[in-house]
Amino acid sequence: MAQKHILFIDDDKLLGDILIHKIEKEGYKVTAAMDGAQGLERMKVEKPDLVLLDVLLPTMTGYEILEAKQKDLALANIPVIIISDSGQPVDIERARTLGVKDYLIKARLDPTEVLLKINAYLGTPESSPTKNTGKLAGRKILWVEDDQFLSSILAVKLSHEGCAGLYAKNGEEAIEILNREIPDIILLDLLLPGMTGFDVLKAIRSNPKLSNVPIIVLSNLGQKEDMEKTKELGANKYLIKAEHDLDDIVNEVIKALDEKKATASA
């Protein structure tokens, strides 16, 4: 499989050094441009698999790059993730109307989250070192969670266990990822913006390709009726966040995968 290529367009050298090192370590090829015009030219020549793009750039803004990209059929379908200093709703909305896949704010930026977003759109590289070590080596896990702090620490924990992580912060993102990737297991919150976890569960279990993928619900809701409803909708396990630590979660994931393997070989 050819090495996936990411183009990083940003004039922040410190951020670039951090992100590029982390992304390359994961197994991706990365090239960089520090001004807008150069970035657009590199995009035309290199045809990367994904672009990380700042908004405020010398010579051309990120918005101008996106407008030019939309008009070029050879570039129009390349996914773009914005990384910006601005978190204003008007800027986020403008970026989305220009076709960006995601919008990350620098002040709250976590390099691990950037990598998870990249993995979500491109899949984990075959050369990724996380495939070689840990209790979950080689496993692909999707977790659907809007709590950024929990997602960050969970990402670190799962990475240490050697698995490939796919992350969605809401139900719509989860469904989009599942249209491209079939994970080995899914961790699903119930309280999500937009689609609820119940809606996501219904959508997953209505897809024959995902019928055998174990789903562990990980929620703050502890009501018996919620637990019963998720079971009726096809969840394999229900964990209450307050009652379980990260090691518990990893152990439940391993147990669910072992049960899946035993069922498949029976």
Main features:
266 residues; Rossmann fold; five-stranded parallel beta sheet; alpha/beta
The CATH top-level class label of the largest domain: Alpha Beta
* Largest sheet descriptor: 5 strands, parallel
- Low-confidence segments, given as residue ranges, are none
Query: What's the overall average pLDDT, rounded?
Result: 88
CATH architecture of the largest domain: 3-Layer(aba) Sandwich
CATH topology of the largest domain: Rossmann fold
Q: What's the β-strand tally?
A: 10
Quick take:
With 266 residues, the chain is an alpha/beta fold.
Structure explained in plain terms:
- The protein has 2 domains: 107 residues, 3-Layer(aba) Sandwich (Rossmann fold); 138 residues, Rossmann fold (3-Layer(aba) Sandwich).
- By secondary structure, it is of the alpha/beta class.
- Helix 9 links the parallel strand 9 and strand 10.
Summarize the SSE layout with pairings.
Layout: E1 5-9, H1 13-26, E2 29-33, H2 36-46, E3 50-53, H3 62-71, E4 80-84, H4 89-97, E5 102-105, H5 111-122, E6 140-144, H6 148-160, E7 164-168, H7 171-178, E8 185-188, H8 197-205, E9 215-219, H9 224-232, E10 237-240, H10 246-265
Parallel strand pairs: 1-2, 1-3, 3-4, 4-5, 6-7, 6-8, 8-9, 9-10
